[in-house]
Amino acid sequence: MTAVVTAHGVTKRFGDVTALDDVSFALAEHTIYGLLGRNGAGKTTLMQILTGQAFASSGNVSVFDAPPVENPAVLSKVCFVRESQRYPHVYTVRHVFRTARRLFANWDDTFAHGLAADFQLPAGRLVRRLSRGMLSALGVTVGLAARAPLTFFDEPYLGLDPAARQLFYDRLLADYAGHPRTVVLSTHLIDEVSDLVERVLLIDRGRLLLDEDADDLRGRAVAATGRAEAVDGFAAGRTELHRERLSGLVRSTILGGLGPHAKAHAQTLNVELEPLSLQQLVVRLTVPPTTTAAAGREATR
Ligand SMILES: Nc1ncnc2c1ncn2[C@@H]1O[C@H](COP(=O)(O)OP(=O)(O)OP(=O)(O)O)[C@@H](O)[C@H]1O
């Protein structure tokens, strides 16, 4: 794998808050990543460090083989799109595109204007007069048309309606096919991006919980539904993440694949198995156990 980013033991403290705790990973070229985690997990902090906007308290970060902070050669290859992006007071959409053209070597003006038309973004309108959704559309348009070798999207599509988000996902995939690059999508809309992302980084309370191929994660856990004793029998010796009661039945979330042995075991016990979606898996892995399996087991006794 050719790494465009490497992070070793990255820790970031804000006073007594540890936003990132000894995080190590690499980002490969030509890959779309999902950067996932609950509110306050440390995703934005990580992206700020990788884009040279903040220093790590300890550890090392290398982006295109160099430290990113105040490094124009590195930063010219990086685009960071975030919802809180500020623009000069007098800027119109067209001004933003002109500035982006100077900043990004691979900027494609025709693509940018095509996206603006798709998103119904008026090129002559002042940015400060755009609606929230239009501002999001402007962010993703810049992020796509910049074609930066390393592009971070920090939930800039939150203001977009579902149709516009789908347009963003479609345009991203189509453009990525012709112009591969490394894309990091930070999002809470996991089901929406689960077919888009190739690899998942999951951060939980500052620690890197998962760094895995999305395909491997899709079969990582199952929901087992049946009578309480049958589910108990199936769950015995397996790692249970969550349990809930469903109209007389019990549904348990269990780590482990849907291998032939598990399927046969479930069938004998009359327990129904379904694979967990990426979003369900992330929720189950990042909700504290006291509120999931243990409490669920108590509740179903
Ligand atoms: N400048 C700062 N000063 C103090 N604490 C901060 C600062 N920036 C971030 N934090 C804290 O660091 C932690 C991680 O925040 P961060 O914004 O990285 O989370 P996030 O995963 O992006 O969350 P969200 O999904 O809600 O956007 C939080 O506890 C946050 O309050």
TrEMBL record:
<dbReference type="InterPro" id="IPR003593">
    <property type="entry name" value="AAA+_ATPase"/>
</dbReference>
<dbReference type="InterPro" id="IPR051782">
    <property type="entry name" value="ABC_Transporter_VariousFunc"/>
</dbReference>
<keyword id="KW-0067">ATP-binding</keyword>
<dbReference type="InterPro" id="IPR027417">
    <property type="entry name" value="P-loop_NTPase"/>
</dbReference>
<feature type="domain" description="ABC transporter">
    <location>
        <begin position="5"/>
        <end position="230"/>
    </location>
</feature>
<keyword id="KW-0547">Nucleotide-binding</keyword>
<keyword id="KW-0813">Transport</keyword>
<protein>
    <submittedName>
        <fullName>ABC transporter ATP-binding protein</fullName>
    </submittedName>
</protein>
<dbReference type="Pfam" id="PF00005">
    <property type="entry name" value="ABC_tran"/>
</dbReference>
<dbReference type="GO" id="GO:0005524">
    <property type="term" value="F:ATP binding"/>
</dbReference>
<dbReference type="InterPro" id="IPR003439">
    <property type="entry name" value="ABC_transporter-like_ATP-bd"/>
</dbReference>
